[in-house]
Amino acid sequence: AQKVTQAQTEISVVEKEDVTLDCVYETRDTTYYLFWYKQPPSGELVFLIRRNSFDEQNEISGRYSWNFQKSTSSFNFTITASQVVDSAVYFCALRSSGGYQKVTFGTGTKLQVIP
Amino acid sequence: EPEVTQTPSHQVTQMGQEVILRCVPISNHLYFYWYRQILGQKVEFLVSFYNNEISEKSEIFDDQFSVERPDGSNFTLKIRSTKLEDSAMYFCASSADRDTGELFFGEGSRLTVL
Question: In the Cβ-directed half-sphere of A20, how many Cα atoms lie within 13 Å?
């Protein structure tokens, strides 16, 4: 069975602060994919990143960075110099290879960036 | 940029009525999905569809639900007799590749059952 845990339900930060969103996952599969999605107040799901289980290299994209640590089954997401437009619910998700892409989502972390 | 489109964006219906939610996946994609998000909760998998048949479905996807790809472009989710607890945001998604491709989600269809 797959499980994704996002222990932080809500986080509030002041604009320009850095913030890290935690994600811990469980799977018995050796090959799997991890994702982060952003859900702004308008409701759509916006893809941010995909990581496969064989690639533990951390990734940076502008103000976003991701830290994948297989040893602790974590895939944390950091926003540097947060902006009000970053306010959204962020979902971490997991899919094991071989399935028909059934994605298991975490419960989400609501981020509020205060100006 | 190609995108997944969903209609309607919001539908209000009476309990017991049938509802059809429509999706147009990205044109060269082969794998299609429906997910559901009850307000304030996590996104839950309903069903995946490939080669004109259901490839996987969750416990939520009971006999009240059905999916269809009637004309090669639309992908529909039908709820036969809606219940109050069916009120949710329904997301359609598509993917080009089963193993490595990410899911591209539509903007969602909000269903309100009264």
Answer: 10
Cβ-defined contact of A101 to B110 (cutoff 8 Å): no
Interface test with B, best of A34, A46, A101 (most B CBs within 10 A): A101
* Per-residue pLDDT of chain A in tens (115 residues, 90 and over written 9): 789 999 999 999 999 999 999 999 999 888 888 999 999 988 888 889 888 888 888 888 899 999 999 999 999 999 999 999 999 999 999 987 665 567 899 999 999 999 9
Q: Do A47 and B105 touch (CB under 8 A)?
A: yes
Count of Cβ atoms closer than 10 Å to residue A42 Cβ: 9
CA neighbor of B70 nearest in space, from B32, B18, B97: B32
